[in-house]
Design a protein that fits this description.
Length: about 375
């Protein structure tokens, strides 16, 4: 029996890995310690939703419980680390993961007994028609095939073993163990095989093509298709390069937000009183107020402020549109012109009139342009 655990060191700190379900897994406390987490298990519980608690057999001794994480969770864990040489660790771990895979692909007679150690880490259901394996690949089981084709499971698992070499042309065949369901004959646990879509399809070509088998093939193909489409729609990084790319994108977005926040802070500090004025007005058009009210906010007299706006070519200074803004400033969203009706004394006939209102955007613009009155 080969020791399933592969161990190396990074910066004189040990790190272990195992290979299962066609992918490398890292011993979580080892990685969290290297990444300088003060409370490794708390970090694992919070940041590694796909972690698994496994009992791994040891050469010449009892099995030991280990919490393991896949490469996606490792990248997530690293993203919250303050390790100075984090980039160096992530680069090194790619080679380590490859060596774990080479070590784990050797023949060995051991089975992981796993239970979820974090929310969302589900144990595969061998009775389900198709499930997502921990690596994200849809798989079915020999138990599901036996039930669907109405064959004894002993016959199906025997077929898997007989043609295992053929099946492994499409990837390693995984074997798991579960307790025998109550009410079934026989003692001891039940060993079953986990098969990907190509392996399951090939296996059923070795069965007699009865009506039951033919209909089950159709159900199985449909189940694989639907689950694969669902997995693609919900896809997250499944390999270390994908996880690292996703992590790099996250860092870039975080850095961009930090730069934007620093720029905004510097702008606010530079603006000083201007920022306070912007906070006092709404930017929406519904906050429009009269020009006289803006003059009061800025500390100008109404007559003086109207004269200033006319002098600067913002308001018309003569004609029927006197005291109304030029169209240019209306188009920019600084002003709006409203119409009203009032009685024309002494005749009492109604008369239409127009007056300008300054929008929130216009208020901010006028404050920035003229500032407070001196």
């Amino acid at each position: 029996m080969t020791n399933p655990i592969h161990q190396e060191e990074f910066n004189l700190r040990p790190i272990r890995g195992i290979y299962r379900s066609d992918q490398p897994w890292i011993v979580a406390p080892d990685a969290a310690t290297i990444l300088n987490f003060d409370r490794p298990m708390e970090a694992i519980e919070a940041l590694c939703p796909e972690s698994l608690l496994c009992t791994v057999p040891q050469l010449g001794g009892p099995g030991i419980p280990l919490t393991i994480i896949n490469l996606k969770d490792l990248a997530r864990l690293a993203s919250h680390s303050y390790l100075p040489n984090k980039a160096g660790f992530l680069s090194w771990i790619q080679g380590f993961a490859h060596r774990v895979s080479l070590h784990g692909s050797q023949p060995r007679a051991w089975v992981l007994e796993e239970t979820p150690s974090a929310p969302g880490a589900a144990t595969p259901d061998p009775g389900a028609l198709v499930t997502l394996a921990s690596g994200g690949e849809p798989r079915t089981s020999s138990l599901a095939i036996a039930q669907g084709t109405e064959n004894d499971h002993a016959s199906v698992i025997k077929l898997v073993r007989t043609y295992r070499a053929d099946l492994e042309e499409f990837g390693l065949v995984g074997f798991e163990i579960q307790p025998r369901p109550s009410g079934q004959h026989g003692g001891g646990d039940v060993e079953f095989a986990l098969l990907n879509e190509q392996q399951a399809t090939l296996l059923m070509t070795y069965m007699r093509n009865s009506e039951i088998v033919r209909k089950f093939k159709m159900r199985l193909v449909k189940a694989f298709y639907e689950l694969r489409n669902h997995a693609q729609a919900m896809r997250m990084p499944q390999t270390l390069p994908e996880a690292l790319r996703a992590y790099a994108e996250t860092l870039e977005k975080k850095e961009a937000l930090e730069v934007k926040a620093r720029d905004q802070a510097a702008t606010i500090q530079t603006m000083g009183p201007k920022a306070a004025f912007h906070d006092a007005v709404s930017i929406s058009a519904s906050s429009a107020i009269s020009i006289s009210e803006v003059a009061q906010l800025l500390g100008y007299g109404s007559i003086r402020f109207f004269a200033l706006l006319k002098d600067k070519g913002i308001l018309l200074s003569h004609g029927s549109r006197e005291n109304l803004p030029y169209q240019e400033f209306i188009d920019r969203g600084y002003f709006e012109v409203r119409e009203g009706i009032r009685e024309n004394s002494p005749s009492g006939e109604p008369k239409t009139y127009r007056h300008a209102r300054v929008t929130g955007k216009g208020q901010a613009w006028l404050q920035a342009k003229f500032g407070k009155a001196k």
